[in-house]
Sequence to fold (345 residues):
Amino acid sequence: MSILSKGLLYLSKTDRHLIALCSDVTYKTQVGYGVFVLIVGIFAFASGSYALRTALGNSPLVFLVAMVYSALIMFIDREIVSATSKNMRMVGTRLALAVFIGLVISVPIELRIFEPQLIQQSKMTSNEYNAPYLTQKQAAEKQYRDRIVGLEERLHTLETEASQLENRVSNELLSPDQQFAGVDEGTNIPGPGPVYRRLKEQLAAKQGEQQRAQNELATLKAEEAAELARIDKEFKRNEVSPANDLLSRYVALGAVKRHPEHGWDAWFMAWGLRLLLIMLELTPALIKVMQEGNEYDAMLQANRRRSITRIYAIANDHMEQLSENGGQNPTPTLIAQLKTDPLTS
Fold:
């Protein structure tokens, strides 16, 4: 018997001493049970490791816990396929447990299969939550940039007006035939008179206004990067980042299934996977229920009844000894007798 066969018989909880006395068909049936248990264990490990990686990251603990989880599922299946009782209560319990295990294993595998769609759905949900904050951010950035554009336009206007005032001041000092064309004519009395002084005052005021606008514009431009960074920081403080935990992915999976256009496709695909795993989990239990008893089952039950009968016989003998010797402990004890002649197959 190969190591692989021994391992599969262990997974089906098969007595190797008894199965060696059975037909080849019965031997292969018991090995087949072990194959089903192993396959479900592999799916359980893949499912558990993905779920734990989502929750805990790439910690080495993930694979250890996944192995424990897989071993638990395999040992439960081992008990299911090794049960010999076929009463309705036991059958119903085994089938319900198989369905439950199939559903539990399928969820993380569904999440892995639909992972690209779940990432898209998480981003869409995050964008929906962040839409008001993004609108506020864009409005604040536009408002700041509009202030810069407004100041640049105002500065351009002030420069034009100051240039025109400079030309008018110059015209007051020039004779009519020398004055600038396209500019308001002077008083035609060259020299710094009252009009000249008034224009000089207006020009000084305009240049002062122009300087203040230049300073304000320079300040806004110098602070632009810091102000935009502050606005972005405020947005990120309120921003709802896409969640990547197990529950969020499961919620996103539900949203994918409710999609108006592709929801039914995702729903059918998910339930197809679930039914596949449930069928895989149910198959050994159903085969066990529907299969007629074979020589292995008969020998196993006969061996159990013999062992139980033998224990009861030893106990009855001890009861007789107690009544005959006045309550003294009978010898040899039950444990001593079983050590001398163990209850082997």
Q: What stands out?
A: The mean pLDDT is 80.
